[in-house]
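User: Can you fold this complex?
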Amino acid sequence: MTGLEARVAPAPNVAVPPPVASRSRVGRITLLTVGLVVALVVATLVSASVGQLGISPAEVLRAVGRSIGLPVAGPSDDLVTQALWTIRFPRVVMALVIGAALAAAGVLMQAVFANPLADPGVVGVSGGAAFGACASIVFGLQFAGYWTTPLMAFAAGLVATMLVYGLSRAGGRTEVVTLLLTGIAVNAFTGAGLAFLTFLGDQQAREQIVFWQLGSLNGSMWDQAAAIAPVVGLGLVGSVVLTRSLDLLSLGDRAARHVGVRVEAVRIVAIVVVALLVGAAVAFAGIIAFVGLVVPHLMRMLIGPAHGPLLLVSTLGGALLLTIADLLARTLVPYADLPIGMLTSLVGGPFFFWLLRRARRRSGGWA
Amino acid sequence: MPSMPSRRRALLAAASALVVLAVATGCSAGGAPEQAGTAAARTADSATSATDPATSLQAIAPVTDAKSVTGASTATLTTDLPPKASTVDEPELPVTVTDNQDTEVTVTSADRILALDVYGTLSSTVYGLGLGGNLVGRDVSTGFAGTEELPLVTQNGHELSAEAILALRPTVLLTDTSLGPWDVVLQIRKAGIPVVVVDSHRDTSNTDRIIDQVATALGVPETGARLVDEVHEQQEAVAAQVARIAPQSKADKLRMVFLYVRGNAGIYYLFGQESGADSLIDAVGGRDIATEQDWKGMRPVNAEALVAMQSDLVIMMTKGLESVGGVDGLLQRVPAIAKTPAGQHRRIVDMADTTVMSFGPRTPEIVAALAVAIYAPEWSR
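Assistant: Here's the predicted assembly.
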């Protein structure tokens, strides 16, 4: 937990260089990266070959092989190939992309707010996105056709992020208590807004809101994946560019300014990137809590706080976590589809609690 | 409050006037779409309840190959009004009944009746007993002819409002556990209004029980018995027609699912055992795939599981189908349906949200309308 302590109590006047990776740390990072890549490949293959449609993994491989032009005997049933390509594979891809986006957003949030508690859900950004989506449903907005609701979620997510950032900064820095209170305020506001929208809407709109809020990767489609993948890709590139500045930022604002970081500009860019990542994740799948909180913390415990490697392994870890969670969501109960947000929160809730207890024991709590 | 300063009293009066206004406008805003939906579901040519629902099926020839039929259709009721008992008695009150929750209730007058539940079953039952004129308010699902002007007492869809109910000064409230909050029901009982709780289960088999409970509470048990017999007769006539038209062997019967979709959220609920949908599918001579898979209640279904079920026909609610952009939108946005025979043959049958699961005395009509839409889709497009 060296990362945590460094984040909680930065030494603002000591101009130490960004964490230099020691030999053993480099080894650990490499090992973890390789391990995660292998696990991700395996999980993706398993996820692609297991599902409620009774198809053997061998048949799945043959179907894929034939689709990309390999001279193998495909499944006897053309329906099977089609169902795999239109139903299962886009869903697997969506899980990968959204998991990566949420974890990367978590890394950025925690760095920008210099605070280990920052998670898109905790500070109300996802709530803002939900508010935007529900407003488009209740008012029957159709300016972008089918894409209206995702677009509104995205825009409202951006506004909420800016709001939390603007409101929780005082004297050039973000205090933990102010941040949490801002998060509570924004959550209360979006919650009230949602309640008002459900009051305004008719029966049909209300039910649409409930369904949207449940969140699910069921019914994922290629055009959805195609819509969010470039946005997430852009967000990830932006995150990579930011990592070095974020390392310097973790020394404290003054130290960072001394070594030439334009602190406010970095923060603003990081927040736009977070909004891109979270907005894209929320747009079709709804709110999937705790991935952004849990994954970066786990990874920081394993490899320390340097943001470059942390971003890499967190992105891989987020994709892995959501792929596994989605595999469980769609296969645990015959015929049923469990809400994925419920699964991640079931794991994330207790983890969050444990994190609080542990930090309290080690460093006497956050104040 | 004699000591209250007059200015404060005026403020209070103004505030309560505003509240009343808000309630009233809220009511009309909430009610309008429902009425429009029901009005659209009616056919223009008839406005009576006298016709026997089975007659609408008589002209349909037995369907030998039901699976080769293609095209979407909409099931619509042919009447504006629920069936009414052929002769009706005056209520004999007071009467003391033990309701569905074993509460003893004494009903002294049926002059001002409120009959409220999720699907509007109870108000149509009251109408069937010849007491439709005594209804003083309605729930959001009640839209048969003559009820349009009645004040709506459910807020936000299915939420009861105690003051709106008390303001109507009902002499009896008939309801079930499908509306809430339950505390409101208790408040009304505390306010001295007899509250009779009726069975909240809905399927094709407990029509008798619901009619009987309502009729007993309103002091018209004999009218109730008559209505039960007549609805029974209709139901049997419809069942005979369905048996004549629909394929008989298990292999030839249509594999049906009742799917509940709202918007583009990627979540679809499948209705299974005990949902009421199972008994409807049974009544129209289909195979309920959800029940065959041991699927209970209403739960979100997995897209791949939907493909695996390979249904021949999907029953949906009209507003649900509209919310995904009609049949084209459904097939485009829910590829799992496009990969089933139902999707390939566009065999999507929709029926008004407030009607399809309303059961009660309209059960025979509903089953007949669905059967026409399923076996003679060209008549109901």
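The CA atoms of residues 141 and 157 of chain A lie 17 Å apart. Chain A touches chain B at residues 51-54, 79, 82-83, 86-88, 91, 137, 146, 149, 198-199, 202-204, 206-208, 210-212, 214, 216-221, 284-286, 330, 334-339 (CB under 8 Å).
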